[in-house]
Design goal:
19% strand, eleven-stranded mixed beta sheet, alpha/beta, globular, 411 residues
């Protein structure tokens, strides 16, 4: 019999606040994190807006020597993990470290390290490439650095499924606890890819919005949507086996009930046009949690503000829920924080936990008018209402679909 899994701690580094409390208050105040790029001179770029993390000082979360041995995506992960552990009040001296694992992914790793060392290679030759280039750059170092920083000796995973990374990372941690591989897992995603090659590459793909208006550059489900805004940050949660959490008197935020994932097997960037892959992922998550579709009232959508995603995700929701789709509340946190790529699903998972905890569904900020086929309730206004279950969707390049279902702890 599989074991039950609950959320006992959360940590976040986001474009609208460092720390879960600041992030959540900003969500409720409908703050947006969009501004001209400052990480490099983007004056010659078609897309010049990003959702950068503000006021982040790595020395507030780790010593300077450790910080120098980490790229930004790893610094974000360690900061968020530290907050999550503190929030969970998990005393590692009282835990078997081999039963505490880590599942923290990054979709890209460090583009900045690649850019920097490639320039050095061309300018100064191969012998001048930094000795730590590879361990600074590779995406698994988020999980590696978190494990090292906090003494986590259990299963250590780095899921890389592009924009589904954060949700898959939490889902795989959920499975690891369910089936006895661990008692506690730190899980989530991190990304720091606001860099010249990152912005140029996504722009060439026509995935980014070229709007310079902060209020209209990330507008999921709006008829005038023109692409996503690149964001950065990290979200990490502490998942724990229910009885382990109860035994140590932990505060329990929510129960993870179900997890589903599929592949579209269709196209390297576009979701399946009929939404069938994403629909099956949602159906699998609900079946896994033994929750009927008509009992679900809220979905945190992937909602990137690209034409294809919002249209095809809407079709997927209709396919999975039938007529009940018209009774769902659907919103997109990306309307405030942009697209955090590998961190998106993890930060949005945290938003779901807070929405469930407070009975509050945030607005899809910036949404004005939708097109004809986008005819569901995309939350043009925030709502104060009970949220019995929250379903969070993430869809990644390559056809990766992941959905995770949470609810209040059942007796």
């Amino acid at each position: 019999m599989s074991r039950r899994v609950v959320v006992t701690g959360m940590g976040a580094v986001t474009p609208i606040g460092v720390g879960v409390h600041t992030f959540w208050e900003s969500i409720k105040q409908e703050k947006i994190g969009f501004a001209p790029i400052t990480r490099f001179d983007a004056s010659d770029y078609k897309c010049r807006m990003a959702a950068e993390v503000k006021d982040f000082r790595p020395e507030d979360f780790m010593d300077k020597k450790s910080a120098r041995r980490m790229e930004l995506f790893c610094q974000f992960a360690v900061a968020a993990a530290g907050e999550a552990l503190q929030d969970a009040a998990l005393d590692m001296e009282k835990e078997d470290p081999y039963r505490v694992g880590c599942s923290i992914g990054s979709g890209i790793g460090s583009l900045q390290a690649i850019e920097r060392e490639h320039a050095r290679l061309l300018e100064k030759g191969p012998s001048r490439v930094a000795p730590l280039f590879v361990p600074l750059m590779i995406s698994n170092m988020a999980a590696g650095n978190v494990s090292i920083a906090f003494g986590l000796k259990g299963k250590s995973l780095n899921v890389v499924t592009a924009c589904a990374t954060g949700t898959n990372s939490i889902g795989e941690a959920f499975r690891s606890i369910q089936y006895g591989d661990a008692d506690v897992m730190l899980a989530g995603g991190t990304e720091g890819a606001v860099s010249p090659i990152g912005i140029a590459g996504f722009t060439s793909l026509t995935a980014l919005s070229d709007s310079t208006d902060p209020a209209r550059c990330s507008i999921p489900f709006d008829r005038d949507r023109s692409g996503f805004v690149m964001g950065e940050g990290a979200g990490v949660v502490v998942l724990e086996e229910l009885e382990h959490a109860r035994k140590r008197g932990a505060r329990i935020y929510a129960e993870v009930l179900g997890y589903g994932c599929t592949s579209d097997a269709f196209h390297i960037t576009s979701p399946a046009e009929d939404g069938s892959g994403a629909a099956r992922a949602m159906e699998n998550a609900m079946a896994d949690g033994n929750v009927a579709p008509e009992d679900v009232t809220y979905i945190n959508a992937h909602g990137t503000a690209t034409h294809h995603n919002d249209l095809f995700e809407t079709r997927a929701i209709k396919l999975a829920f039938g007529e009940h789709a018209r009774k769902l509340r659907i919103n997109s946190t990306k309307s405030m924080i942009g697209h955090l790529l590998g961190a998106a699903g993890a930060v949005e998972f945290i938003a779901c936990v807070k929405e469930l905890e407070e009975g509050f569904i945030h607005r899809t900020v910036g949404l004005q008018e939708s097109e004809e086929e986008l005819d569901l309730d995309y939350c043009r206004e925030s709502r104060q209402e009970e949220v019995p279950y929250a379903l969070s969707n993430s869809l990644g390049f390559g056809g990766h679909n992941a959905s995770i279902l949470i609810g209040n702890v059942r007796n």
